[in-house]
Amino acid sequence: MIEPRLLEELIAFRRERDWEQFHNPKDIAISLSIEAAELLEWFQWRQPDEVRQMLDSDKREHLEDEIADVAVYLSYLCHDLGIDLNQVVKSKMAKNAAKYPKERVRGRADKYNEYS
Q1: How many other CB atoms are there within 10 angstroms of residue 44's CB atom?
Q2: Span 22-38, pLDDT tens digits
Q3: What is the CATH number of domain 4-83?
Q4: pTM
């Protein structure tokens, strides 16, 4: 999760460039999706050993930049909508714990409505 001081820097960065006018929730969500797709593209068609090799190369920085872009847009979205990311993640974990009890799903990849 983005530290409060870093979030303040992100908000100031955006404000100094007068980009808030472009950053409505819809467009931030679209941008978040685009950046997530760019992150996914980094892994596309690559086997796990290829990914490991890329992580040890100068290509790692590109991956880190894509991850940062996703984090920045998610941070903007949460900030602008008044959503506490830490709190909603905790809440979602509690819901997932109820949907996926560890004694029933350990080692399984089934969706919650598919396991017996």
Answers
A1: 7
A2: 999 999 999 999 999 99
A3: 1.10.287.1080
A4: 0.90
